[in-house]
């Protein structure tokens, strides 16, 4: 375990070259993923088939020898466990039954962990099959981001339905976020117990929130998850990724007590350097550079390594890799990061 470079950085070490993994590294840009996905049937079937979910998690590790594998699953498995009729349609994204205040008051957590048993089995299989040096990351969606889908019943460009719901039904919103925080903490503890080395909390929609709402919807629920996980697993290492949060990231680490902060590509490197003074940062290459390749890719990589390489850094994208990315560009990225600092 001591050789797992991502864990070393999460413990505050600076490594040169820095470790690297990519959000959505198991995904549609890989032909082998598309084959496995076809064999699984639906997207959710793939998430709950521990044999196939293990296979797709391992595919990018085999191909690129990345420093971390992230469990293949989805942030919406918790609403699925709550029987919200979650489905995924190609080209349209997730859909589910929208929830109302009465539905929130009736939520019960009894069936969540039993429903997610196949996910924990995937984690256990992965830890057994991964190279000893590879960090295994579990994850969950942050309460606010999961709530946006539960309230609207689908994704929207700026999550207006959930923002409006928060103003019209503040008590129901507070209850939903608290419920999801506790359920997510239980889910992360179970992943850690199954073999995950560390976990990441994805707040993909943090960037649509005003200052007060960011505090109430993004900071407090994530702090609650982290406190709950650490009360049971004191050594747990946790990355928090609040996409689009911008200047509100300034004290996000202190308030949530996350070990590392994930940065999207819009975060200026000068600001990222300030955040890095307080601990590890992760990010933040624009996923479009992965599509462009060539000079655009090289320049983006070098800027991050030059700007953040002298402190604790986990190299990553600023959001998930897109289906249009060429796997050859991932190979190029890994080679360039690994050759940084005179290492090859």
Entry keywords:
single chain, 344 residues, alpha/beta, 7-stranded parallel beta sheet, two-stranded antiparallel ribbon, 17 helices
Description:
The protein is α/β, with parallel strands linked by helices. The chain has 17 helices and nine strands. The chain has a seven-stranded parallel beta sheet. A two-stranded antiparallel ribbon has the order 2-3. 50% of the residues are buried. The mean pLDDT is 97.
DSSP, total strands: 9
Q: State the distance separating the first and last CA atoms.
A: 22 Å
Uncertain runs: none
Shape: globular
H-E order? HHHHEHEEHHHEHHHEHEHEHEHHEH
What is the beta-strand fraction? 5-15%
So how many helices? 17
Strand order of the largest sheet: 1-4-5-6-7-8-9
What value does the Rg take, in angstroms?
Answer: 19 Å
User: Mind summarizing the main beta sheet?
Assistant: 7 strands, parallel
The residue fraction in helices comes out at 40-55%
| Helix-strand category | alpha/beta
Calculate the mean pLDDT score and round it.
97
In short:
It is built from 17 helices and nine strands. It is α/β, with parallel strands linked by helices.
List the helices and strands and how they pair.
Blueprint: H1 5-10, H2 31-40, H3 43-48, H4 50-64, E1 68-70, H5 77-81, E2 87-89, E3 93-95, H6 101-105, H7 112-115, H8 117-129, E4 135-141, H9 143-152, H10 160-168, H11 170-194, E5 198-203, H12 211-232, E6 238-242, H13 252-256, E7 260-262, H14 269-276, E8 281-285, H15 287-292, H16 294-308, E9 313-317, H17 327-338
Parallel strand pairs: 1-4, 4-5, 5-6, 6-7, 7-8, 8-9
Antiparallel strand pairs: 2-3
